[in-house]
User: What shape does this take?
Amino acid sequence: MIITNSEIDLNKIAFTSLIPLSVTLELLTECNLRCRHCYIPKHNNRGISENAIAILLKNLRKSGTLFLTFTGGEVFLRKDFLDILQEARRLRFNISIFTNGTLLCEDIVKILSDIYVDEVAVSVYSMDEHIHDNITGTKGSLTQTLNALEILGKYSINTIIKTPLMQINAMCYNDIYLFAKQFNIRCKFSPTIFAKTDGNQSPISLNMTDENLNLIIKDIDTINKIFKNDNDNQYFDDLPCSAGFNCCSIDCEGNVYPCNQFLLKCGNIFEDEFFNIWNNSQSLKELRGTQTKHLIECDNCSLVEFCYRCPGLSLLEKNNYLLCSDAAKTIACARKNNK
Amino acid sequence: MYSKYFWAKNISLSWQHIDNNVYIIDHQNNEIYKLIDVGKHIWLEIDGRKNIEQIAFTLIQIYDVSLQELSKDIHYFLDYLNMLELVLKSDKPFSGLFVDDNY
Assistant: This one.
């Protein structure tokens, strides 16, 4: 009647059965910070109504979703965010939150703890306030974020620091890692800055120089691997990515995508029920028919073994998720140089 | 004899019905549980307001056993889940977040 097994791989089960196990919900694009590298073009969307979200949550529950990630903008700018969280927990979703942490206070964190939010991911760009605050465009933001991390720790909430690395903070990763280690917090570094979702390429110029990337890639791969499940991705060897197979993303206008970094529009929840979009979207059907053998540019590429290509990046760069991504190629090159 | 207690799912858990099984995430203890067959059916009937006999009364329509035998099995299973802190029992019906009436 009951099986307890650490080998139970829910991602694999959902992947095989095409169940949207993990869904990312963008609740708004409004934000109290103005981070230089942000992929969101305009911070003026307050998101879909609480009622519409309540209906969506029920539909997701019926569709098989278990893991729900709330992101923004800054989610805590929504006055109804705690109500949304409580409804999601009432439906027994496993909840993760992406936040810059600046609006977290003890009263809010206590509620997160009381309703058993599983994970809070907080953006930290540097332990040097001049660098962090320069990136966020907001003086005092690092102090506020570190305060939030302390409160999250006090309530033993599972916390992860997420850090996109760019030229200005490339050498900050070790201090962040040491800080995280000291307080038993996980951390994850990303060496890629994406273009904005409207195609504006300006954030790309913030990316690290090849020289810096070469210097740090081995370290950040090692740190990221510490927190990575060894089973990750092993079951879709012949597929480019699991996005659209066991996970998807819904933006604050109701558009459904395979992932929040993979902007292949699959439908809109105000035009069709989520369940129908997930099962019948032509874009998703085509994506699910893709195999690595369709990635023609990867054939005979000497970087394949070093490349973790992201179809979303390719779509943003080349308007075709089957083509090679320059950003992924640059990182693969750095990995090869550091072999 | 099994009607004394009412049963509720522990509200710290997340769970979902996937591929004809129930998967329960206990993130506090870093465990995943899979409920199959009758275990799954019992779990789906736990709503904070039913006692064992009420759960058995629903499940008797699925299983070809006596009500008494089924109640006994459910009793053992719920005690086991209770030991794992996956369910709670009370001599009064639960209320608020413990009421699971969505399924």
User: Anything to note?
Assistant: The mean pLDDT of chain A is 93. The first strand of chain A starts at residue 2 and ends at 4. The interface with chain B takes residues 1-6, 8, 10, 13-14, 17, 19, 21, 58, 61, 64-67, 89-95, 116, 118, 158 of chain A (CB under 8 Å).
